[in-house]
Amino acid sequence: MVKTNDILIQIRKAKEGNEQAYTFLLNTYWNDVMRFQLSKIKNEAEAEDITVKTFARVFDKIHLYDEQYTFKTWILTISKNLYIDEFRKSQSEHISTQ
């Protein structure tokens, strides 16, 4: 288990654009995000697609991360919101094809 202080150090480095810090965070949280997506989407390829989108959004918005919250909670909130967006999009496409 990675210590909270180590996570904060890597987050701060990532905010400065450090690619190794990004890799560290991706490796640390990838399985958590994939498990979350697989609990919602039974298709592994679709779950992986949203997981990739989650990390792209995380790294794009990392400067907005507030350290008073746990990083895992922040990432999973982003992942949940992307899942909801994809679900709505698929529902909209399903309705328009009928």
Could you give a quick summary of the protein structure above?
The chain is built from 4 helices and no strands. With 98 residues, the chain is mainly alpha-helical.
Structure description:
By secondary structure, this protein is mainly alpha-helical. Helix content is 80%, strand content 0%. It has four helices and no strands. It has helices at 4-15, 19-40, 44-61, 71-96. Helix 1 (4-15) crosses helix 2 (19-40), helix 2 crosses helix 4 (71-96) and helix 3 packs across helix 4. The longest helix is centred in the C-terminal third of the chain and has 26 residues, at 71-96. 16% of the residues are buried. The mean pLDDT is 92.
Task: Note the topology.
Layout: H1 4-15, H2 19-40, H3 44-61, H4 71-96
Strand content: under 5%
Q: Which outline best applies? A: elongated
Order of helices and strands: HHHH
What is the overall number of helices? 4
Most strands sheet: none
Please compute the radius of gyration using only Cα atoms: 15 Å
Low-pLDDT parts are: none
The strand count comes to 0
Mean pLDDT: 92
Task: State the end-to-end distance.
Answer: 49 Å
Could you estimate the helical fraction of the residues in percent? Answer: over 70%
Label the structural class: mainly alpha
What characteristics describe this protein?
about 100 residues; mainly alpha; elongated
